[in-house]
Amino acid sequence: METATGSFRQLAANSKQFTRRLLTIGENRLELLAVEVQEERERLLHAFLLALTAAIVIGLPARSSAFWLVDVMLTGGVLKNAVVQCYSANMRSLKPKLTQQNNNAVKLKSK
Prior knowledge:
Distance between the termini: 133 Å
Number of helices: 2
Number of strands: 0
Oligomer: single chain
Order of helices and strands: HH
Number of domains: 2
Helix content: over 70%
């Protein structure tokens, strides 16, 4: 009977030891997963900041050069002359139509 009790105690001790090892392995795996998640978060943040920096570095000179180009065109008169010519060309094409509409309106009033 003592051998059966002794083997049962041995079996219980081995089961506890196995369970502890299993829990320790699970705990280590969870810690490794947490470290991997943290590292991936840091990589993503680094990539986002790098992309944002690149957008600013590329975007600002492009924007300022576009503003400079418009400013040069306005002060040089190139754009202003083009706008004035387009406006005057549109007005010349509209003038006969407006004159005819005015004449029609005058004729209707006189009747």
